[in-house]
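As a warm-up, study this chain.
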Amino acid sequence: MTRLYNPQSYGLFALFTAIVNNVNLISTLGYAPAFVLPRQRKRSIALVQLTVLLSLAALLLMSLAFWLIHDKLLRWLRAEELGVWFYVIPLAVFVFNLNVLMSAWYLRTKDFKKRAGIDVVTAVAGRSITLAVGWLGHGPAGGLLLGDLFSKFTMFFSMLFNGIHRQLGELRRPFSWSLIRAVAWEYREYPFYVMPTAYLNTLAGQLPIFFLATGFGTTAVGLFAFSTSLLELPINLIGNAVAPVFLQKAAETYQQDPERLKQICLNLYNKLFYLGLLPFGVITVFGDWIFSFVFGARWEQAGVFTGYLGYYYVFKLASYATSPIYAVLQRQRIALLGTALLVLARAGSLVLGMRLHNLNLGMLLFGLSSLIVTFLVDLNVLYLLHVPMLRVAMRTLLFVVITLGLLWGLRASLEGFLAGSFVRVASTARI
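Now compare it with the structure written out below.
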C-alpha cells in the first residue's frame, strides 16, 4: 500500500476516518456498549431499539448539516480533494453504529469464534479493494476510502446473515416507548460519563489529524496517520483479545474476592509492559531507518514520528490492565478527568508546535505528554487498588531508561561503524 499511495492520500483518508470516529459516539449517546448488561432479554432489546432510533436520527441530521456546511468545513480542514466523499460520512457513521451494535450482540451470545472469522474476512476484503484500486488508479485517496467502506459493509452483511437476521423480528414485536425511556434512564451513566470519556479518548487520538491538517497540510496528516496505524496494529490485536476477557474476570473477582483484584491487575500490567518494552523500544530508536528501508524514502518522516511516539505505546499497551478497573470500581468520573487531562496535554503540545512552526517539536511534545499522562493514570488505578505505586513507578522507569540507553548505544555504534566503512570505501575509490 505504501508503494501505491502517497502521504497526501493517507492524509485525506485519515481526515475522513477522524470525522466518522468523532461523530459515531455522539450519534448513539454511547448506549451501544450497554447492550450486554441487562439480564432480561426484553430490556436488552429495548436498548437495541433505542440505539437504532438514535442512529437513524443522526443519519438524517448529519445529512442535512453536511449539505449546509460542506464547503466551509472542507476549506477549514484544507481537504477540498475529498469532494463528494464528504457526503458519504453520514452513511459511514450509520453503518459503523450498526456494526458496533451487532458486535455487542455477538459478545452477549459469546459467539467469539464466529466474530473472529468475520473480522478476518472483512479485513481481507477491504485491503483487497484498496490494493486493486490503488494499482489501477495510481494511488488516489478514493481507493483507501472505498476499501474502508467496503470493509464496513462486508462486516455488516457478514454479521447480519450469520444468525442475527433470524432474530430481527424481536426488534419490532416488543416495541414499547415506555420501556425504551426506562432503559435509557437506567443506563444514563453511559451518555453522562461513559460516552464523554470514550469521545475524549477518540478526540485525544484524532487531535493531531485536525491540528496538522489546518497547520501543516494533508501530507503531514498522512505521515502521522501511517505512523500511528502501524503502532496501533499490535496494540489493537493484543488489546481486543485481552480487554473484554480481563474486564469480565476483574468484575467477577471484585464481586467474589476483592482483595485478589489488585494482584491480577498488577500481574497483567507487568506482563503487558514487559511485552512491549523491547519492540516499541526498537521502533523508538530505529524508526526512521526502518521506515525508509521497508516503505521507501518518502515515508522516512513517518518513521521519525514513530520514534517520538513509540514509548508512549508501551504504556498504552500496559493500560489495558488498568483502564477496565475504573468501570469495575465505578469510578468513571476519575476516568473522565484522566482522559480530559490527556486531551489538554496533547492539544497544548500541538498548539506550541504550530505557534513555533515546528512540526517535529509538536510531535515530540505530543508523544512525551501522552506518555506522562497515561503513566500517571495507570499509577492512579494502582493507588485505588492499594498497590505500592511508587515501587512500581521506580521499577518501570528504570527498565525504560536501561532499555533506551542500550538501544541508543547500539544505534551510535552502528552509525560509527557505517561512517567508518563509508570513509574507507571513499579512500579506496580515490586511490
